[in-house]
Amino acid sequence: MIYLDYQATTPLAPEALTAMVPWLETYHANPHASHRPGRAAKAAVEVARDQLAALLPPGGRVVFTSGATESLNWAIKGSAGPIATVATEHAAVLDTVGAEARRGRHVAVLPVAADGRLALPALDPSVRLVAAMLVNNEIGIVQPIAALAAIAHAAGAMFLCDAVQGYGRVPIPETVDLIALSAHKIHGPKGIGALWVRDGVTLEPLLHGGDQEGGRSGTLSPALCAGFGAAARLMVERRDADAAHVERLWQIATTMLAEWQINGSVAHRYHGNLNVRRERLDVARLMSDCRDIAFSAGSACASGSGRSSHVLRAIGLSEAQARSSIRLGFGRYTSEDDLRTGLAAIVAAAERQA
Fold this sequence. Notes:
By secondary structure, this protein is of the alpha/beta class. It has helices at residues 14-25, 36-53, 68-77, 91-102, 145-154, 222-237, 239-256, 283-289, 310-314, 319-323, 336-352, and strands at residues 2-3, 60-65, 83-86, 107-110, 129-133, 158-162, 178-182, 193-198, 261-262, 273-277, 293-294, 325-329. The protein is globular.
């Protein structure tokens, strides 16, 4: 199987697995217990917390969660006042602000241009939270987060950055107030994420109980924390090598798919994401013909819904264009040979449809 779906999830780094194994096989203490095994488990959690913080702005704290969906829900539901967000956000944001709107909270969803970028808006002065994604999970577009955060602050609002796809790959501006992260998008384990909270920012709890994380309740898994921390450490250590490798893969992919249309900006995007379309392409047939290649017809989170991508519709694509698009994601463990082989098979299968 050739895996080209890095935006859905990334392969677990061997180093992350190694960091997790002792806490799965041998050590089982609750990291919130006061005895010696508990303190050892807590120490492992704190090491992981510091490893995550190395890629985040100063002046804040890392709170572990069950994943980015929980982090985003907490940041949105734990804040107050009107919200502004972007039409191309992940469902974890759009569905959450939709739920808040049904409860009577005012929500503004800002449109994007045809390249997927948000024009710098004039915010309503009543807005108290602005939420925007650093790197889009479907089309890889990088938003002008620093400028958006400045506009939010000028209006008296906090800024929430969904950095799930960009963490460790695209710099996160130091001016944001809240940052949502996910381990399994950086070669860590599934089932754990984090919310970075700037000092002085308070959120109402989403989960009530033991308040183990200072605003977030629930017993932490030292194994998952250790895996997340190891994955974050690798993002620091391998940053230059990973970036160079992704750039080589991007050049191969764009050359082999030169006759396909790229969706979204080419200039403002993360090059590990390539969302392309071909006129009258039957994507379901293509995926059936290419069973040994893992790629996506859109966001994995919306697969099976029967809906075309809301992101592609937001950048002005017709229903037919959106449904003739595929998303290819590649990164650290994608070999150049595998990418060439996979793309050659996709191109050949698409051409057989003509």
